[in-house]
Design a protein that fits this description.
The structure is a single chain. This protein is of the alpha/beta class and 574 residues long. The chain has four domains: 207 residues, no CATH class; 42 residues, no CATH class; 186 residues, P-loop containing nucleotide triphosphate hydrolases (Rossmann fold), CATH 3.40.50.300; 53 residues, no CATH class. It is built from 20 helices and 19 strands. It has a six-stranded parallel sheet. A three-stranded antiparallel sheet has the order 1-2-13, with helices on one face. A hairpin with a 2-residue loop joins strand 10 and strand 11. The longest helix has 19 residues.
């Protein structure tokens, strides 16, 4: 479901014209200046809780319709939201036959006389091309062929290939849609959900005209304009805000663990824990405060050094009392490599909760306080927001969309980007394992080329002699290889690149997230669970698992509920 601007109108896809009209009228009574985002928010809220919508989607498959709904809302580049919605059918009614799949997913052009609305949608939005010989300039063309493997082959029935991927039914029935004087048949149809595409079910469009169609758009991109901020709701002890539905039982609400906690209280416990266990004295607290002030000033192109008489933080002192032994070891190795100025490549292997982000922010602040430059980048947008001055790798380096084993980045030797790289002391790359190895190899070739200008020896040093720290966890998301087998995915990973032989692997194993503010008994129990979970991810549970393995799950981790999915959701989101 998406909320998209169309000239001076806003188009919102919804499931029920009656419900959406009622919502729109309700908003009109509240405000004369209707915004797309509030309507979208109300639409999402009602759709995921609307049993009639669930019935329309699951009709003919499940008598119980939808068991659970999980959704997330993300913002597109033009700053309007779209939603990804996952619907869970009852366990006994999941789609298991070809006939059931064909009821939902289609890769054919619908008959115009049977469903003209669906035909209009598919012909306008779900036809790929023309590409190939008819249009070699199409964006999907790579090496003179379609990167999306269109046109597909005709198939009289839906089936699965040897890797388990579905091959949808595409019959050669003579149907076609003409675009740019090219006839596109069923081989060019992008598979779609029949029920969510259908106007009568889920694609009713409501167009809300702007109050002033000639008005100038003075909107501000707040996502780019302002940094991410989390507001703490201050409260007195025992007076935190509790949110509940009017029909909820008050006893059940008070029994939930989340009622006795709050974000503000957790924040206080975190800092009290650190101050108690790290034995901060007044001097150290003063130094930490100056450290935070200096970080804030650096964000605003200033420094404490500009203010006569103001003390300046001792960064080394702050780090000694803030980092764990493992983190301090990584910090010292990186600082030593920067001081030697001979280049080095590190890979810091740490799972979630080991405070990797805190370590990088501390390391980058220390280097920047000395007037040096640090580039903090991440493979994903969410991860980049957690880094100080963080950006995505594609934004910072201009990574091409389609890479090969011989690709390089478009960075000229005399460009501003080249000058920045020459002055950079350290590059920190978070979430590195989720990127294809060709991305790192292209960066290596680019830096060797750019930094060899004036110093030929840099062309023979990994990454042109720059100190680079790759960060991540191979247990998490690996590179996405279209229709790739396990061997192809592993081969696309950083660990399969020639760069890996130059990487010094450092590990972070102490989970800070699971121990802060916990009782000793809870810490021990949590540590046992975390170790079992890590062993499972490392393949140390269940014996050899080259093909298949049997893993015995501890009894205390198995839900005894008759509704395991519902109980899991209740446990995770109390």
């Amino acid at each position: 479901m998406s909320c998209n601007p169309s000239n001076s109108s806003t188009i919102i896809q919804s499931s029920s014209s009656v419900n959406l009209t009622r919502r729109t009228q309700r908003l009109k009574r509240k405000s004369t200046n209707i915004s797309a985002i509030p309507i979208f928010d109300l639409t999402i809220d009602e759709e995921v809780n609307d049993k009639h919508t669930h019935a329309n989607i699951a009709k003919g498959v499940s008598k119980d319709y939808i068991d659970h709904v999980v959704y997330t809302i993300a913002f597109q580049k033009h700053d309007l939201p779209h939603s990804h919605i996952c619907l869970f059918l009852h366990y006994d009614d999941k789609l298991r036959t070809v006939e059931q799949i064909d009821m939902y997913i289609s890769a054919e052009i619908p008959k115009i006389n049977e469903d003209p609305d669906l035909y209009t949608l598919v012909s306008e939005f779900m036809m790929h091309g023309p590409c190939g010989a008819e249009n070699r300039k199409c964006l999907c063309m790579v090496d003179n062929k379609c990167s999306k493997n269109f046109p597909k082959k005709f198939s009289n029935e839906t089936s699965a290939d040897e890797d388990g991927f579905l091959i949808y039914r595409r019959r050669n029935d003579g149907s076609f849609v003409e675009k740019s004087d090219v006839k596109l048949d069923n081989r060019h149809v992008v598979a779609y959900n029949v029920r969510t595409m259908n106007f009568d079910a889920l694609a009713t469009r409501v167009v809300i005209q702007s109050n002033n169609e000639s008005a100038i758009d003075n909107s501000v991109d707040e996502i780019k304009e302002y940094p991410a901020v989390v507001r703490l709701r201050f409260h007195l002890p025992g007076q935190q805000q509790v949110i509940y539905d009017p029909d909820d039982d008050i006893d059940n609400i008070l029994d939930k663990p989340s009622v006795a906690s709050s974000m503000f209280r957790s924040w206080l416990e975190f800092y009290i824990y650190h101050c108690t266990n790290l034995s901060f004295i007044d001097h150290h607290l003063k130094n930490l405060t100056l450290f935070e002030i200096e970080s804030f000033l650096l964000h605003n192109n200033s420094t404490l050094k500009n203010f006569i008489g103001m003390p300046y933080p001792n960064f080394d002192c702050t780090l000694i009392f803030s980092l764990t032994n493992e983190q301090r070891g990584v910090f010292e190795d990186a600082m030593a490599a920067i001081e030697d100025n001979k280049g080095d490549v590190f890979f810091v292997y740490g799972y979630g909760g080991t405070d990797k982000t805190f370590l990088w922010n501390t390391l980058s602040a220390t280097i920047r306080s000395k007037g040096q430059i640090v580039l903090t980048v991440a493979s994903s947008g969410i991860a980049s927001l957690l880094l100080t001055e963080g950006r995505t790798t594609h934004s910072h380096f201009g990574i091409p969309l389609n890479l090969t084993e011989n690709s390089i980045y478009s960075i000229n030797r005399d460009s501003d980007a080249s000058k920045l790289l020459k002055k950079t002391s350290l590059i920190i790359w978070d979430e590195a394992p989720m990127v294809h190895k060709h991305v790192f190899e292209a960066l290596d070739r680019t830096l060797r080329d750019v930094l060899s200008f004036g110093n030929v020896s840099n062309s023979h040093i990994p990454f042109g002699g720059k100190v680079i720290v790759f960060v991540g966890d191979f247990r998490q998301i690996l590179p996405v290889v279209s229709n790739g087998s396990r061997q192809e995915i592993v081969n696309a990973s950083l660990s399969s690149s020639y760069i890996w032989t130059n990487c010094k692997v450092l590990k972070l194993t102490k989970n800070m997230r699971l121990t802060v503010g916990k009782d000793p008994s809870e810490i021990q129990q949590t540590r046992l669970f975390a170790n079992w979970f890590l062993d499972r991810g490392e393949g140390n549970v269940g014996g050899s698992n080259n093909v298949d393995a049997v893993i015995h799950i501890p009894e205390d981790l198995i839900s005894q509920s008759s509704d395991p999915i519902g109980s899991l959701i209740e446990f995770v989101y109390p």
